[in-house]
Amino acid sequence: MKTKLIERRKPTPAERSKGAEVVFIREDESGRKATIYACRCYESWEQWGAHREVLCDNVPAVEAWRHPGEK
User: Fold this and answer.
1) Exposure string (b/e) for 37-47, b if CB count within 10 Å is 16 or more?
2) How many Å apart are CA 70 and CA 13, to the nearest integer?
3) Torsion of CA 62, 50, 18, 10, to 10 degrees
4) Is the pLDDT of residue 10 over 70?
5) Strand partners, 46
6) Residue 1 above 70 pLDDT?
7) Which residues pair with 26 in a beta bridge?
8) What residues does each domain of the chain span?
9) Going by C-beta distance under 8 Å and a sequence separation of 6 or more, which residues neighbour residue 3?
10) 58-to-4, 13, 14, 32 alpha-carbon distances in Å
11) Rounded CA separation 68/71 (Å)
C-alpha cells in the first residue's frame, strides 16, 4: 500500500495520555486517512495505530522526527 504523509502534528492531551509524542496522518490513493502515533523508545522509536503496510510507509517520517538534522 502506498500512502503519502499529509500532516505531522503534536498530540492532543488524550493522545498524549496514551503515550503519543507525535501524530502522523497518511492518506492512500483512495483518500482514506490513517492516523499513526509515535513516541521515543530508548534510543529508537515505536509507532502504532495503522496497518503494517502504512506503518512501513511512515518509517522515513518517524526516523526524521526522531533524529532531526540527520540525513
Assistant:
1) bbbeeeeebeb
2) 29
3) 40
4) yes
5) 39
6) no
7) 5, 34
8) 3-66
9) 26, 27, 28, 34, 54, 57, 58
10) 8, 23, 22, 15
11) 8
pLDDT at 69 over 80: no
What tens digit of pLDDT does each residue of 11-60 get?
999 999 999 999 999 999 999 999 999 999 998 999 999 999 999 999 99
1 contacts: CB under 8 Å, gap ≥ 6: 28, 51, 53, 54, 57
Instruction: State residue 71's pLDDT score.
Output: 61
Phi and psi angles of residue 2, each rounded to the nearest 5 degrees, phi first: -105, 125
